[in-house]
Amino acid sequence: MASLSVQGAAAYKKKDGTLSITRDQKSLQWQPNGNEKPVQVAIAHITNLQQTPESAAKVMLKVFEKSPDAAESVTHLFHFNSPTNPRLEANAVKDALTNLISTMKAGDASVPKANSAAPASAAMAIASAVTSKSTSGSAKWYDDNALKFDIELQQSLMKKDPALHRTYMEARRTKPDTISDSQFNSQFWSTRTNILRAHGVEVNQKRGAYNVLSAVKPRQVDGELKMNISAEQVQLIFSQHPLVKKVYDQNVPKLNEMEFWSRFFLSRLFKKLKGERIVETDSTDPTFDRYLNDNNDTKLSERLLGLHIPHIIDLEGNEENQGGSKGGNRADFTMRPGSAAKVPIVRTLNSLSEKIMAHVAPSDIDPADPIGMDEETFNALALRDLQGDAEENRIMLNIKQQSRFFANEKSAVSAEALLYEKQIPAEVLSGLQIDINPSRMCTRPSGGLDLSAAIGVREDSDSEEEEDEKTPHVGSKASLVDAQKQILEGIKARRIEIDGSDSQASLSGLSQKIFDRLTLTHATTTEFLHHFWVLFLSGDADRAGELAKMVETLERAMDRINAVAADAERERDDLIKKRKQEIRDHWERTGKKIHWSPNSVGGGEKVVKEMMQPTIKTLQKATKEYRKALTTEGVDVS
């Protein structure tokens, strides 16, 4: 091969230099203008090349390098900054690299070659590589490493999910400088491989075969037949109905394309293939009517001869083994083997379904292989409704003191529990016996005891009269109001569980802007916590400096939470001031007071801290474990 003298002025990590290909054409080299160390990338280790589009202002080339002994790819970003024509130099370097990579793949034994005595060209090698890749495309979705480095798939997912894109950008903006972009991307997507896999499968799905004749809807407009049929639908018709292809091949040279399809969708042959019953009033067409008795499935008999059908679903076998009509009551006409004219819709749909399913990869066991009904086939055909429930085979996990996992370290005791804790059971029972003593109860005019007086309920009492009572009785109006309030709160909570809550209630008094900031802060904090534990538990002493930077990032995450809480409290104060001003204006205008409490305004710092309490505890736990490890190693943490 002729020697390549391709080079261009390019900056690498904000340092100017020259990017070129070595004389032996095996390496890509960046030589700095100063005394810094040059960067050299083996062309055999280059896995991917990415270049900014022609319309972009900056001209950049990203090179992905993955050596055989490396677990992850390393990216090199070169910024072409030639004062004359940087785009031309970048294109020249990329084209030269592409040609060299193609030539190396062409000479690689692992890449399929064309069946020719001549050496395979670079273009043929690339085509063969693409072909071999397409055959194993489904396996890519099960490879986590391939998903983590599929940049195109990641960008497609972030375009579809704006919340994920905001989380990615915010986490990347606030990450420590010690974490490179490639390390950040690897860590970020390593916890989201399931989302990438689901998105990749979704975008690569293709629509399968369907009953195309039922999808085509010809209609009459002013006596003229109107229909919309695409080339894809024509191919499906030919595939599902070989008889139509036969009619098309024999008549289209005589008829033009539009006339053929117009007459076909009005013919009796169309009704027969669709599964509808033909009546005498249907219009006749000599061109299509002569094919009415032709077989639409020429390979059906061949498949039936080579196919073993289990006796439990073999209608012809049942007819033969049971003696047919001589063996008793005659079977229903839908269960009798025969021509499709008896039950056209059933026979047609069954035949069409068989053709469509023949092109679908089987997800269960084929009853025809092996010959005879084995145990697995029998289980597939068994009537499961008549079987009992399967015995559960689970590993029982016994946990002592489960409350430790679901309660806070210092769980506060409710005021009601403290009240009951101070009561003496003997005194409570004695008071109850006195209250329900029949000698102390009054009698009603209609007969019977009056329990209202016994429990202290006075219907003519007001809550104002009982405000001075130090120990309100169980039957007082205040107690009844408290009981009613407790019942209504339970009903409200249950209704929210069943019907869901509205958007305003789910925000807990916060504005949508503050809530979105809080959600983004929570997502980025969780991402940094994941990075911290990966580094902390790795035990790599060489990454101690990176771990220290990550702890500083966690401390800044706590500052961001406090900033959101302060803004939420400021927003709540503004709402309270606005409401007070409205009440004051109403009193000056009408002279009437409005009873209102500032406690009815939700949101604020308290709500933010309640929502972020698990995250705050996790941050404190991470910092505590880090300082504990430093103390164990004898490092001064002050």
Explain how this protein is built.
With 638 residues, this protein is an alpha+beta fold. The chain has 28 helices and eleven strands. The longest helix has 47 residues. It starts with 6 loop residues before the first strand and ends in a 6-residue tail after the last helix.
DSSP helix fraction = 40-55%
Q: Please, how many helices?
A: 28
Using the alpha-carbon principal axes, give the shape: extended
Contiguous runs where pLDDT drops below 50 for at least 5 residues: 109-136, 463-470
Biggest β-sheet, characterized? 7 strands, antiparallel
The whole-number mean of residue pLDDT values reads 75
Question: Characteristics of this structure?
Answer:
alpha+beta; extended; 11 strands; 28 helices; seven-stranded antiparallel beta sheet; 638 residues; two-stranded antiparallel ribbon
What's a concise summary of this model?
The longest helix is centred in the C-terminal third of the chain and has 47 residues, at 544-590.
Outline the fold blueprint.
Layout: E1 7-12, E2 15-21, E3 27-32, E4 39-42, E5 46-51, E6 59-65, E7 74-80, H1 86-106, H2 122-135, H3 137-140, H4 144-148, H5 151-160, H6 162-173, H7 181-190, H8 193-203, H9 212-215, E8 219-221, E9 224-226, H10 231-240, H11 242-251, H12 257-264, H13 268-274, H14 286-289, H15 300-306, H16 315-321, H17 344-358, H18 375-381, H19 403-406, H20 415-422, H21 425-435, E10 442-443, E11 449-450, H22 451-455, H23 477-499, H24 503-506, H25 512-538, H26 544-590, H27 605-611, H28 613-632
